Each structure stands twice: as C-alpha cells, then as structure tokens.
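Protocol step 4 of 5: obtain the predicted structure for the target chain.
Materials: sequence only (see below). No template structures provided, no constraints applied. The aim of this step is simply to have a reference model before the mutagenesis design in step 5. Sequence pasted as it appears in the construct record:
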Amino acid sequence: MSRLIVVSNRVSAPTDPAGGSVGGLAMALSAALKTYNGLWFGWSGETVETFTGVLEIEERAGVTVALVDLEAQDVDEYYNGYANGTLWPLFHHRVDLTAYERSYGEGYERVNRRFAEILAPLIEPDDLIWVHDYHLIPLARDLRRLGVKNRIGFFLHTPWPVRQLLVTLPHHRRLVESMFAFDLLGFHTREWLDLFRDYVASEAGGTLLENDAMEAFGQRVQGGVFPIGIDVEGFLQARASPLGVRTYDRMVSSTAFRSLIVGVDRLDYSKGLEQRLLGYEQFLKDNPEMRSEVLLLQITPISRDDVDTYHDMRGRLDSLAGRINGAYAEMDWQPIRYLNRTYRRDQLAGIYRAARVGLVTPLRDGMNLVAKEYVCAQNPEDPGVLILSRFAGAAARMGEALIVNPFSREELSDAIKQALTMPLDERIRRWTALMQVVRETDVSIWRDDYVSALRGVEINREDGARVAGYQ
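Step 4 output (structure tokens):
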C-alpha cells in the first residue's frame, strides 16, 4: 500500500493518543497517516540563526512527523510576509492591506524550494503527496523540478479571490501557473473553484474541460469541490465530557436566565468582528424591551498581535465593546462579555450548547467550522439558531441558518431578533436539516473523498513540471 505524505506549513499532529484539544482536521489527517503508514512534513515552528536543512523525525501518537527549522529571515519574508502579508489579505479581498514587497516573494520562493529539496529524498515511488494551503502553492513545481513524478494534490483552506482582484498581485500569472504542477486542486465550495476556472479561462487562455479539469501552461490539472467539516463524533463526545457538561452548567448559571448569544473567532479582519458588534448594538437600539434579556459572549483569541494591522484592530474592538457596554449596561447587567483567550474544544462545546444564538458572520471565509461546531453542540429537543454570513463557505450548504449580509447592521439586528423569537418547531426543523449537513460533511468523509480523488486522477505529465519562478 502506498503511503500518504501530508505537507503543511505547521505540523499539528497530536502529541498524545487522546488528542487533547487538537482540532478535528489534525485528528482526521493523523488517522489517515496511521492508515496509510504516512508522514507529516512541515516547519517545526522554531527558528535558527542559519538554515541547515537538518530534518528532525519523531513519532507523535502513532504519526511520523518530519520537522525542519527556518531562519528568522525566512519566517519574516515567507510566513509573515508573502503568505500572511500578501496572499492572506488578497485572498480575503482586502487589497488595501495587501503588501507587495519583492523580498517577500523571494522568501516565499526560497522556503518552498528548501522544503522541496528536503522532502524529495523522503518520497517513495508510490507515495501520494497532499499539500495544504496558500503557504505552499509553488511546492509541487519545485518537487517536479527535482524529478518527483508522484501524484501531488493541493487543498486551499481559504477562499480563492475574484479575478479582478487577483490581477493586482505582481506575477499573478506565474502563481497560477505553478498550481498546474499539481494533479488535483481542491476547494471548499463551488464558488471558489469557479473563480479559479474563470481566471484560467480569462487570464491564462486555458481550456475548461469536463468534470472540472483544466488545461493551461502546457499542463492539465483536475479541480474538485471538497467541503470540509468537523469530527462529528469527537465533538459530540466533547460536549458530553465532564468538562463540557460542567462548562454548560456554568454558562447557564452565569447568564441568569438570559438568552446567550455567542461568537467565537480568532482576531482577524476577515471575521467581521467590528461589524458584528455594530449589528448587536443596532439590535439593542431597535429592541429596548429585550435589552436586559440577552447577553453577547464574544470569544476572540489574539493572533498576530505584533502586526500593526491586528494590534490596531484589537484596540478598536476593545473601544467598541467598552462603548456599547457603557451606553447600555445596567447595574446588574452588561450586554457584552468580550474575552481574549483560547478555550478547549470540550469547553467550547458546552458554551455553544448553552447559547440560544450562534453568530458566525465573517466578511469572507473559506468554510468556517465554528458554524458546524455550533450546530453539532445543540440540544436536539431545544436547539439554538445559527446566524450565518452569506460570505462564509459554510453558507453554500447550510441554507437553513439565518443567512445575512454582515456588512448590514440592520440585517444583523433583524436576524438576532428573529432567532430569539423563533418558535420551537421551526428551530427544530432548521436544526435537523443543518445537522444532516454537518454529518454529511464530516471531516473523515472530506479526507477520504479527497484521497480517493487523488488516487484516481489521470496522470498526463511525462516528466517534472516546468514553470517559471515568481521573481
């Protein structure tokens, strides 16, 4: 049986068999690697003064991981620079925040080339290689240059940008050209794949073939839609765990019979946090009779606080939450609890279950698994209501949520009121349909569908891919 080699910027394989609070994606990939006797390759998260290329191989809960350290300059230019300072904002339609620096592109090229050079000797002839996310778009090209002919798949965990914005990226054509060194390109939604195909046809002069195959740059690649999900059974177990039940009891007690509204998002401009608080403020303004009957719990772990954009955003959110509390709070109640910390999966399951309303309102998101976690955590006999942004990938299949435009504070206000006043029979009907989607898109199904598709893709290349660099 061939091995599966997973490649990602960071290796998140669990360090213990139980998995602790590790997310469902890591658990699903770990299970696949155990099944296929595979390998997980990526950056260790550590920096060294001078890059040596030394590979550290170890076992983590039955999974073999291969880790490599990077120089501080690599991290600055490849990770903080091109990946998160250029591609991340561009892919989330924030061209105003996109940094176009030549040194960033050079660092991105350098690290992908180094990864390929270290990984190539580990690859056996029948191995399947599965590369994850925007950090590693050129990796297949660099592996092909080293003579690797194996099936190599790529999965993008973010949205793909519209063509009119992608062309603002210097050397955008070469970025897309490098993707044709893969054999299978996976996207969360039909929309993201169609946007990619639109670029191929309009900018690259490519040919769109049947069943989402594409030809351009003298190569052929297969596209596919693979909506990612959560580890359903694992999340249900987390909800029923002692800590999950205890957290639920604490939340019910602390809300003092008020209706809890919950939002859980890391600090990022793509999540629509400022717009969410403004929409909640509009609800308080529009519905004075309901003010003291509700409570918004916004959990926002800090990320990249050393980057000016995120530091400034944190200050604006602190100020906005404080202003709303100052304007509407009473002596025994304040409308917002705003927390900048991380919680375990079992704790989140208890929090979700206690919430009458789940707010998932990103401005643009690849999928957003919080929406599926919230649904999975609900009591089937008395479920809460999911309010979901139309710009989250999850909205493509979760139409029984209350779908909103997060840029409209009035729509958010109206949806919150509708959710809080929704009859039980409608809540059960909507939740039942949503839970069916959650089960149908379980992360293990996503994983197995992708690996099966990669195994079955037709190989049409005679030798390694031959595409130009970015610079």
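Step 4 remarks: The longest helix spans residues 308-328. The domain at 4-229+445-456 is CATH 3.40.50.2000 (Rossmann fold).
Proceed to step 5.
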